[in-house]
Amino acid sequence: WFCPNLTWSQATSILISSSVGSFLVRSSISQRSFYALSVRVPGVQVQHHLLQVGDGGHGVALYGSEKLFPSIHALVTHLSIMKEDLPCTLVINNYNSDASEESDTENEDIIDIDSEPELAEIVSSMQKRMMGSEVFKPTFYL
What we know:
This protein has a four-stranded antiparallel sheet, with helices on one face. A hairpin with a 6-residue loop joins strand 3 and strand 4. The chain is an alpha+beta fold and about 140 residues long. About 10% of the residues have low confidence.
């Protein structure tokens, strides 16, 4: 659902044929330091809502809302339970199997990391290479 390079029109095209509550998060083109939450809402419509990043890059909120969340993932999880100012709750893991083949090829570089179990092994392997064959172990000071 996180597709930072998707445009407004691409998000609309993907979501218009999806079920209500389907969504994408992308970078906002009009507001450089914002993200956009594109949501398929009732009435065969797609709405686009700005997500404002907190001061110093800490936290994220629906534009105009007082509720600040620690991450986009936390915000999305909350909005899947409570709709807040949205017309509907978000539906997580809603895959539209009727999506066109063209949409799939346009988004080949987008990976749902939750559906790729071997990704943890790849990340671990990359950490080992970056740390000179030692696994990264954080140091805690008391």
